[in-house]
Amino acid sequence: MWGIIPAAGCGSRIQPLAFSKELLPVGSRLTDGAERPCAVSEYLCERMIAGGADKLCFVIAPGKSDILEYYGGSYGSASIAYVVQPEPSGLCDAIFRVAPLIAPDEHLLVGLPDTIWMPADGYQALPDGVLSFLLFPVENPSAFDAVETDEDGNVREIQVKQQNASTNWIWGGFKMSGRILHELLALWLERGRTDEYMGTLVNAYLAKGGRAEGIRAGRAYVDVGTLEGYRAANDLLRHSAVEQGAPVPGAHVTAGAPAGRQLLAHRRELVMSFKQVERGV
Q1: Do 230 and 24 touch, CB atoms closer than 8 A?
Q2: 167-205 tens-digit pLDDT
Q3: Which terminal residue of the chain, N or C, has fewer Cβ atoms less than 10 Å from its own Cβ?
Q4: 213 and 113 in contact (C-beta within 8 Å)?
């Protein structure tokens, strides 16, 4: 199974940073008895692997080689591939650049690398053979893509950043087969590549007789792309660690983390960048 990680965006909401937003240090982990910062995108990698992914693919912009340098060729038990999106052209364009790698009988998970959500095994709730969305309750659904479902969990509509959304359940990740991916790609091309957001394309897919499920298995969802979200993510990790009885708030004990690619210099630069932001520099 593939895990697709779109990471070509510039992260304008949390600039200035001296590195890709996907490497933003959030929380920490213990590796061989030593604590080190944890890049925010590692949480998504871990969740995808827990959901069954044995191959990960980062979709990166030409100037984001620091992601390649950080992760190298593998993460934990999963191998890693990289695909380049020449310019930021939306989520649909990013996802479909991976289509040549994926066979119709394979499955894939998609998630956003600047988010942290609970539970960590959420992808396991998504079924095979159908387009399915992992849903999370949020206070402000208009900032996300709200997913309206019927009583059986079938998706009726995805409301893309819509004011007065009809539901507070948003998607935080999704799963589909390679066959469905290629069907969506064909529809996207038929529509002249006009869909930037996955939600508008899925709405067109549903209108043509397609089917999708919304699984309300998520408990908490944080977008780390803003300073407010960054602070909320650290709070979420601390609370989760307390619930699990972890000795170090926000820490993970994981073997096989990327060796020799510490984020200590990035962390120092991040602190300086945040101070500049808060001073309005």
Answers
A1: yes
A2: 999 999 999 999 999 999 999 999 999 999 999 999 999
A3: C
A4: no
Q: What is the pTM assigned to this prediction?
A: 0.83
| CATH assignment of the domain containing 100 | 3.90.550.10
H or E stretch at 163: none
Task: Provide the token pair at 146.
Answer: 């709200």
Residues 6+ apart with CB under 8 A from 191: 201, 204
Q: Is residue 263 part of a domain?
A: no
CB 115, CB 167: distance < 8 Å: no
Both tokens of 156, joined, read 């009726």
| Helix and strand counts by DSSP (H, E) for the chain | 7, 15
206 lies in a domain? yes
**Cβ(225)–Cβ(211) below 8 Å:** no
Assigned domain for 261 exists: no
Question: Is residue 207 pLDDT above 80, yes or no?
Answer: yes
16 upstream amide cis, omega within 30 of 0: yes
* Under 8 Å between Cβ of 147 and 155: yes
How many Å apart are CA 241 and CA 248, to the nearest integer? 7
Contact 101, 201 (CB under 8 A): no
| Amino acid identity at 157 | E
